[in-house]
């Protein structure tokens, strides 16, 4: 019977820290989107680039919005402030733990990948030595682009929107996909000096059971 890999307590703790930060960020984003939707409902435009910065908050404070929307706006702003504090604490925790991780220095060589992205990617990968090749690694995460081949035709598209239910990396795909998109948007032009695949090639392998 082929072996299967299970994350040890250290990897599970790393994933919990990274995933909880993402959980908080998603909640904050949902609240901000709700505030923008409320302003659109009453026909208010947003004349600033950051509605939740100093100038944007001054504008929000002057808006004449009836109840119960005025109350929900105030509550949402308080919750955003609370989430900002918690997210900052979570990010400080990840940054303090990152230098001790063996994969993070290599991940930081990828354009667009900072300490937070690197920590999250490393925690989702776990023990990279269990992958026999970079292809196995990208297959596990579900970050392979769509490939359609027929005869001499070779078309390559964006990342697949779904991961088969039998894919072992289904749970890892959820946090890794937005991270990959974010890193792509941040990355500067020019050839990459490293990648997750290079981590797979350059990291020592402790064991190599088949990836599942």
Written overview of the protein:
This protein is mainly alpha-helical. It folds into 2 domains: 100 residues, no CATH class; 111 residues, no CATH class. The protein contains 8 helices and 2 strands, in the order ααααααββαα. It has a two-stranded antiparallel sheet with strand order 1-2. The longest helix has 33 residues. It is extended.
Q: Which value, in Å, is the CA radius of gyration?
A: 21 Å
Mean pLDDT: 78
Percent helix among the residues? 55-70%
Number of domains: 2
Read across the widest sheet, the strand sequence of neighbours is 1-2
Major beta sheet, specifics?
2 strands, antiparallel
Class inferred from helices and paired strands: mainly alpha
The residue ranges in which pLDDT falls below 50 over 5 or more consecutive positions are: 164-170, 188-212
Envelope shape: extended
Number of helices: 8
Order of helices and strands: HHHHHHEEHH
- Give the end-to-end Cα distance, rounded to a whole number of Å: 12 Å
Describe how the helices and strands are arranged:
Layout: H1 9-41, H2 54-62, H3 69-97, H4 104-107, H5 115-125, H6 134-141, E1 145-150, E2 153-159, H7 170-186, H8 196-202
Antiparallel strand pairs: 1-2
Properties at a glance:
2 domains, two-stranded antiparallel sheet, 56% helix
What can be said about this structure in brief?
By secondary structure, the protein is mainly α. 56% of the residues lie in helices and 6% in strands.
């Amino acid at each position: 019977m082929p072996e299967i890999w299970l994350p040890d307590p250290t990897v599970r703790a790393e994933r919990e820290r990274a995933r909880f930060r993402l959980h908080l960020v998603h909640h904050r984003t949902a609240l901000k989107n709700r505030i923008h939707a409320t302003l659109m409902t009453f026909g208010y435009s947003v004349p600033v680039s950051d509605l939740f910065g100093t100038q944007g908050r001054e504008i929000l404070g002057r808006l004449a919005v009836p109840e119960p929307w005025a109350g929900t706006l105030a509550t949402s702003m308080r919750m955003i402030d609370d989430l900002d504090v918690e997210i900052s604490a979570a990010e400080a925790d990840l940054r303090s733990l990152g230098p001790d991780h063996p994969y993070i220095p290599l991940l930081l060589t990828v354009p667009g990948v900072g300490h937070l992205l690197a920590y999250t990617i490393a925690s989702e990968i776990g023990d990279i030595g269990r992958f026999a090749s970079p292809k196995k690694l990208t297959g596990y995460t579900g970050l392979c682009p769509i490939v359609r081949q027929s005869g001499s035709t070779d078309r390559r598209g964006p990342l697949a929107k779904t991961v088969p239910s039998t894919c072992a990396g289904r749970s890892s795909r959820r946090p890794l996909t937005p991270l990959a998109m974010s890193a792509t948007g941040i990355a500067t032009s020019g050839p990459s000096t490293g990648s997750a695949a290079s981590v797979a090639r350059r990291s020592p392998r402790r064991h190599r059971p088949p990836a599942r």
